Request: fold
Amino acid sequence: MATQTGAIVYRGPSMLDGSPIVMIAVGFKGSANKKTGPALIQTYILREDMHPVLASRTGKDTGICGSCKHRGLYEGLGEIAIRIEGSRLCYVNLGQGVTVVHNSYVRGIYDACPESELSALFADRLIRMGTYGDPAAVPQHIWRAMLARSAGRTGYTHQWTDPRFAWLQAYVMASVDTLEEASEAQAAGWRTFRVAPPIGWTRENTESLCPASAEGGKVTTCDDCQLCSGKEGKGRRNVMIPDHSTQGRAIKRRHGVIFPEPRKKTAAATRPAGLTFKRNGVTV
Reply:
């Protein structure tokens, strides 16, 4: 298995709409993502038959993103659908890592990993479930095989209103955008990750401010924290983060919100009140 570059861990129909998708895991030699940290294996869920930018522009990414409102708004239907300019609010830049992984897949760089070998491939690894794409798109048995011997994970889903994907409660957070959505998801049994307004935000008593966010002081990274790991993961509190999308950051700048340099990580600094973190013995 060529773990130096990455691996194809699923290729088949999307569990969201049946369209052809592929999931590719990369970062076995470390990730350069400063927020999530170097130890998280990144998983990209892509349309198998078209470029991700084209899929997004023409509304053919439902097999990747499902009902996520941040996909954008569209004019037309079916083959003539076109996304309305400026309506996409997703924080994932399709022209960067997503395109790199897609192009590498087209060039045949990645080997396929049989399902029977997934638990060994991800043993003692930390997994980011859906760096791009909703984890609900991939069959449950694939994720279970990947997570069987893993050291931990992080993940989010917008499909929390669909009872078909209630099994994901154990592994990922319900991604919500309002207090009303948070209450609804929590009542249905989910832990929530709420994206709050970029300015003027508030934190509920049941929520922790994301410690990897600028507002949280960037005192840790997602691979150290792992708080966003569902009901059977670390922690029991819900999590919130002020909008950190491109649009959210622009709003902060316009209002003069400037954050200081992150505090140097120390044993004390990496543990905000009420949170505990472990490395799980993962060596980076």
Residues 264-284 have pLDDT under 50 and may be disordered. Residues 58 and 82 are 5 Å apart (CA to CA). The chain has eight helices and twelve strands. The first helix runs from residue 52 to 57.
